[in-house]
Design brief:
The structure holds two protein chains of two kinds. Chain A contains four helices and no strands. By secondary structure, chain A is an all-alpha fold. Chain A has one domain. The mean pLDDT of chain A is 89. By secondary structure, chain B is mainly alpha-helical. Chain B has one domain. Classes of the chains: A mainly alpha, B mainly alpha.
């Protein structure tokens, strides 16, 4: 199950790392810097890798309990880093960094939810 | 501040962070409603219609905050109020009459499934709208 394996751990870790970095910036009254934006891009790439791995596993017969629910989360989750990126660039103040914090805290939650949609199939 | 600042203040600074949070909720509530209505509507039509309604409210709030200006500030005011009324009503109903909503919505149990953010968000939204409205005057 790629969704609850190492890969999702990496995505969560990366996201929290970028979030922590953004939080420090926000607390120091700093606008989002290059590092945060690159961080968001890295998280997006990691997410896409995770989702491709999930798709490959699904085609091999290892499927989430509800493909539709899984897809719903997938659509939401891939939109987040770009959303954070755009809004953070529009807001070159500390609040831009707050936006990155919000996005980077939401991603781990959604990855855990993805994880749950996958787990149902193994237990049931 | 001059009157001209009204459209600017609403969706900038803390307002832009609010847009981000509302945007995330608009996105996830829409996805949830689409999944529920698309795959199992007959199981709990009332709950799923409510999901869709919540999604629309979040979308309207997001757009209104992003657009700014006095008219949109009023629109945002209305949608934040509906949101607060919705989360409190549905929260109470789901506690006292669990049968009313056989499946979860964003507002079930005061938004517990979403870390109670749905309960806190409209309050922060209303406070921000009041502040932005005063600043504009």
């Amino acid at each position: 199950m790629p969704v609850n394996g190492t890969l999702s751990g990496i995505v969560i870790g990366l996201s929290l790392l970028v979030g922590a970095w953004a939080l420090v910036s926000a607390l120091r009254h700093r606008a989002p810097d290059r590092g945060q934006l690159i961080g968001l891009a890295v998280v997006e790439v990691a997410l896409i890798v995770l989702l491709v791995a999930a798709a490959v596993a699904a085609s091999g017969g290892d499927r989430p309990a509800s493909a539709v629910t899984f897809l719903g989360y997938v659509v939401t989750i891939v939109c987040l880093p770009p959303l954070g990126w755009v809004l953070a660039r529009l807001e070159p103040t500390r609040w831009g960094s707050v936006i990155v914090v919000v996005v980077c805290l939401t991603i781990p939650v959604l990855v855990l939810r993805l994880h749950q949609t996958w787990q149902v199939v193994t237990s049931g | 501040m001059a009157e001209q600042t009204a459209p600017r203040t609403l969706g900038t600074g803390p307002g832009r962070a609010l847009i981000a949070v509302y945007g995330i909720f608009a996105l996830s509530a829409s996805a949830r409603a689409a999944v529920q209505i698309g795959s199992k509507f007959s199981e709990a039509p009332l709950a799923y219609l409510l999901s869709a309604f919540a999604a629309v409210v979040y979308i309207v709030a997001t757009v209104a905050l992003a657009r700014g200006g006095e008219t949109w500030r009023r629109v945002a005011l209305v949608s934040c109020s509906i949101e607060l009324a919705g989360v409190v009503t549905v929260g109470l109903l789901s506690v006292f009459d669990a049968g009313a909503f056989p499946d979860d919505t964003v507002w079930t149990d005061f938004g517990r499934g979403y870390g109670y953010v749905p309960l806190v968000l409209p309050v922060i939204g209303l406070l921000w709208l009041r502040y932005a409205g005063r600043k504009a005057r």
